[in-house]
Known about the structure:
The protein is an alpha/beta fold. It has helices spanning 5-13, 20-31, 39-52, 66-74, 88-100, 114-123, 140-150, 180-195; strands at 56-60, 80-85, 107-111, 128-133, 151-159, 199-206, 215-222. It has a single domain (5-222), classed as Rossmann fold (3-Layer(aba) Sandwich). Helix 3 (39-52) packs parallel to helix 4 and helix 6 (114-123) runs parallel beside helix 7.
Amino acid sequence: MIGNERIASYIFSLEQDLPEFLWNIEKEALETHVPIIKKPTQSLLRFLMHNNKPKRILEVGTAVGFSSLLMTEYMPEGSHIVTIERNEGRIQRAKKNIAEANRGDRITLLEGDATDILQELVDKGERFDFIFMDAAKGQYINFLDNVLTLLEKDGLLVSDNVLQDGDVVESRYGVTRRNRTIHSRMREYLYTLTHHEEFDSIILPIGDGRRKSPNANALSSVL
């Protein structure tokens, strides 16, 4: 997290503008309170698409399709995204956004619970060299075994907002009662990622300096 707001604002001003169709999707999502990735994570994904050049991408948590569509802007020619969503309203919106962007040949949307679909992908022997986790934070730890199976050797797992806007650094009694299960599961997830013998992981604090609490992504590579 960048502490100096002037520095953070300057860095934020250097970020590339979104293509118009993505800007419109982002604007609508913010207006309707649909959670989508924030600006620093957008920049991170753009960098990773250019740098890592993944060919097979799995996204857990489509929402309205914003992050999948963002990745299609920067991923290599011939790459393909498989994305999972269970919320019917968001599924319909994502389908519309993908169709209007003419990206249906580059994105496959799987409808249903991620736990079941991840297991189905494992059973089919599917493999991915890049996985972006942006679903219910309390489920990350439950997805992990299948995610590890699905990742190719040297593949990269990016887990979004692992600090839960700062809640994870608080004590168990520093968060609301309804968030304590998520709090403990995310702490378990982060400990597992950073101590797993098959992962090399880093917790990357990112943010634009204008939030009261820090955000962070976990980047994990399969050894």
